Amino acid sequence: MMLVIAEQRSGRLHRASWEALAAAQEFAAGQPVEALVLGSGVAQAAAELSQAAVGAVHLVEHPALQSYTPDGYVLALQQAFGTLRPEQVFLPHTYQTRDFAPKLAARLDRALITDCVAAKRSDAGASFFRPVYQGKLVAEVAAEGEFPHLVTIQIGAFRSDKVARGPAAAEVKPLAVQLDGSQIRERPEEPFQEAKQAVDLSQAERIVAVGRGIKAQEHIALAEQLAGALGAQLAASRPICDSGWLPMERQVGSSGQTVAPKLYVALGISGAIQHVVGMKGARTIVAINKDADAPIFEIADYGIVGDLFEIVPAMISALEKS
Amino acid sequence: MKIAVCIKQVPVREWQPAVEETRRAIRERDASFEMNEPDAYALEEALRLREQHSGEVVVCTAGPARASQVLREALARGADRGIHVEHDGLTSIGADSFAVAAVLVDAIRDERFDLVLTGLQSDDQGAAQTGVILAERLGLPHATIVMEVQVAAGGLRVKRELEGGWFQWVELPLPALVTIQSGINQLRYATLKGIMAAKKKEIRKVSPGALPAAHVRVVSLDVPRKTKQTQMIAGPASEAAKVLVDKLKNDARVLG
Rounded to an integer, what distance in angstroms lies between the CA atom of residue A109 and that of residue A149? Predict the structure, then answer.
């Protein structure tokens, strides 16, 4: 049996849970897929999951699971796996999964394959594809040893609207676990946002984004001029915001904003996966980079290999003339 | 506070990895190597904690002979001593997260560190597993993707990064393990004095014997398949820029 662990916060399902479910349904090719959600007061999330074509939804509720903790989640899932005996377990590759899945795999001493973008079954067995070397290569990997094998699915790699719906709601089955608050060592506080985001890049029609290739803070002005000429918002990849060259609120990627503009111009951005997940929904992507092997060209509609300090001023002048 | 920092030596970011004919490894002899970037931030955080609370910073790596270079660099930046678990099987792509965690645990368990820091993931495999597996094997509580570390009574208060601009403070008792996000601090670089001093610092070599069985096997490495038809625009910068603007205006129709 294949099992999908859905993620919820305050009872709301993380959209990547649906993507993991879509990946599992595709991989299972008709074999039974079941889902599991854990927390406290999350019956509504289980009911939502039951709309999908799954064999059952397992509902693991306990007061000690009210807030996410790695100790609580690992204890609960270890017991759930003991009862359900899943073969493959798919999870969305969220920050929360990254926090507990390796601990769960280590507790069980079972394989964990993270950040998968595709899965394959053949006579040789199951294999999974994941980016390595910042997306410059793709590795096909296989899990060794006994089930369960844990697999995390990259956000955006599968489409949530591809989830097959069931003819009727699947049965929601409560699954009891024994937990004691004293077993949980982490004391989490409430999640918060640093500041109200003044810039909502998700609504921008055009975006000019800068990466490491911009080299120095004084060159940001050049990107700003291009943004002005295009009527675009300025954005950046993480290293630029880490350096303080642009405020965090202009960061696009897994730790920043997710955007889907008509036009996205990537200046000196290599295309590391953490950035790409935040912008690959853009309709037209332009990549300008001196490195012809940069992964950003894989997803670009138009690409120029060259020196952005020559190309950008030429673009600004061409835009002013047109 | 006695702090361990676990560091991986990885191929430099700028390198386009060349794949061996077996397609199961990269041509490491063609690569230059550097300190994994998130690990450099973990080292910096450890040095800052030592400056505030005194103690010792011990840098640890698991890798082939070449990996001792990152320990020297860390010692030059101010770490007190190093531990190198040396094995030819611990290559850039071949080092299985479970195997790395197992040999590191054997090498550091008896040191009884108050705090173990690592970067959140490596720039080569990017599995984001070794640190958390290490925590479980050492019996330590952990927190991942951390952007601030405060020392509180008997423990730590750390700021975890969540997705989409959200954060969360978590308290942990010590000893603990924390994985550090890039950008948590401003990195320092080695001074000439630091480089000279590093030459006298101890690096303890550990030979693990046989490596534990891997949990994940590399079947094949390949360049990613294009998902889009990319129109590459060649020519001198001024020409290419003109062609691009024209295409954006008249083909893609995304201007104005």
Answer: 10
- Cβ B42 vs Cβ B118: under 8 Å: yes
Q: Which amino acid is at A187?
A: R
Give the relative orientation of helices A308-321 and B237-250 as an angle to the nearest 10 degrees. Answer: 50
Residues written for chain A: 322
- Which residues of A are less than 8 Å from B44 in CB distance? none
Task: Give the pLDDT confidence score for residue A255 in this predicted structure.
Answer: 80
Cβ separation A114–B233 shorter than 8 A: no
Question: Residue B229: its chain A contacts at CB < 8 A?
Answer: 301
- Contact B216/A143, CB-based, under 8 Å? yes
Which positions of chain A have pLDDT values less than 70? 195-198
Beta-carbon contacts below 8 Å between A and B: 265
Question: Which pLDDT score, from 0 to 100, does residue A197 have?
Answer: 59
- Computed from CA positions of residues A292, B93, B64, B13, in that sequence, does the dihedral angle turn out positive or negative? positive
Output the DSSP codes for A237-270. Answer: -HHHHHTTSS-GGGBBSTTSB----SEEEEES--
Closest of A62, A72, A80, A67 to residue A5, by C-alpha: A80
Using one digit for the tens of pLDDT, what is the confidence trace for B123-170? 999 999 999 999 999 999 999 999 999 998 889 999 999 887 789 999
pTM: 0.89
